[in-house]
């Protein structure tokens, strides 16, 4: 998975439809999430599309599997995951994920329908990080 910095460098260079294409590409690059993990327990609430996020941990390091039934939303969840993927849970629990995503200016780039679930995605990721860091 690309780093958030690498993604932003490319995203910043693009405009309009090209940014949508990049988001779709990011979604396609996500590690495959087995259908068995797409359950009510892994569903992110408050998203206009279906979004699933499943945390795994290797010791204190976080790793997430994610998927969505909508291409652009899948790209958005890929951005959220890129901000925290394979980092220590204690670091992610304290991290300002919304701040890390701020340079993408998603609220002004995408419709409110597409971005309404982003805070819930971030909250879910941080909750998992906090639980793993505390263990």
Protein described:
Belongs to the SufE family. This is SufE family protein. This protein has 135 residues and is mainly alpha-helical. The protein contains eight helices and two strands; from the N terminus they run ααββαααααα.
What descriptors fit this protein?
single chain; 135 residues; mainly alpha; Sufe protein. Chain: A; two-stranded antiparallel ribbon; 8 helices; 2 strands; globular
Helix/strand layout:
Layout: H1 4-13, H2 16-29, E1 51-58, E2 61-68, H3 71-84, H4 89-94, H5 97-101, H6 106-109, H7 112-115, H8 118-134
Antiparallel strand pairs: 1-2
Give the beta-strand count.
2
Average pLDDT, rounded to a whole number, is 91
- Which overall shape is indicated by the principal axes computed on the Cα atoms? globular
Strand order of the largest sheet: 1-2
State the helical fraction.
40-55%
Using only CA atoms, what is the Rg? 14 Å
CATH topology: Sufe protein. Chain: A
The major sheet is characterized as: 2 strands, antiparallel
How do the helices and strands follow one another from N- to C-terminus? HHEEHHHHHH
Structural class: mainly alpha
Name of the level-1 CATH class = Alpha Beta
Pfam family, one: SufE
Family: Belongs to the SufE family.
Organism: Aurantiacibacter sediminis
Protein name: SufE family protein
